[in-house]
Design a protein that fits this description.
With 282 residues, this protein is α/β, with parallel strands linked by helices. It contains 14 helices and five strands. The protein starts with a helix and ends with a helix.
Length: 282
Amino acid sequence: MTSSIRLIIKTMYKNLSQKEQAIADYILENPKKVSHSSISDIASELEVADSTIFQFTKKIGYNGFKDFKMAMLMQENDLSAISFHENIQKDDTELTMAQKVFDSNISSLTDTRKLLQEEKLIEAVDLIDASNRLFLFGVGGSEIVATDTYHKFLRSPIPVYHSSDYHLQLMEASLLTPDDCAIFISHTGRSKETIMIAETAKKIGAKTIVITSQISSPLAKLGDVTFISVSEETEFRSEALASRISQLSIMDSLFVILMFRNQDQAQESISKVRKVIAKIKD
């Protein structure tokens, strides 16, 4: 397993049981200690059975505790480098608060970039490029990401559609065809509205791309291709808000790859947009 243990835990955390979250917290807070401890040592420290620790390592993708411990030793620097810069304190100066917000965004982008896989990027752009129409779906805060993506893809050679109203989105989903591609954005991957839209699209046979922060969420499982955005919740700043910049960057990446793949058509589309916009600018 090449993915960072820290990132795996962060993307699965909300889907872990309370006991499993306690194990996850202990691992993230004591990486060096865990990597040099036996399964019995950790179980005793957490007052759980050895089998509970073993099953936890299986759940996050390892063959067992020995496989997990080997990965811990190999990734010790990554785990020890966990930064707590996002914990803004009341007595921080305004500049320090702003810097911590920037640091948190940088951390989200860095973590999300580590999870990117070239084959998934290629597959996603293949689906978009081969589609007759591209539809964007998201509700609440995710609708903002969908709107921004719509604004970008209007410059692409692919016809793109997006409605901010949920009922209109549901109606659009019902009119999709197997030749269309739909992108679904949801931080938790558990939005009932977005899941219903995605299920409607899947039944019809439309191609689906999902962007979420929860790898085990119901929505993630509905994607032909699924991208994971990583973020952490801070006081006065929800995890969903922090993940937005990572989601926007994933969409930027898909857009740029698509445009370079279709340079001639892309230049023509951009030229048309710039020409009409120029008329209303000084």
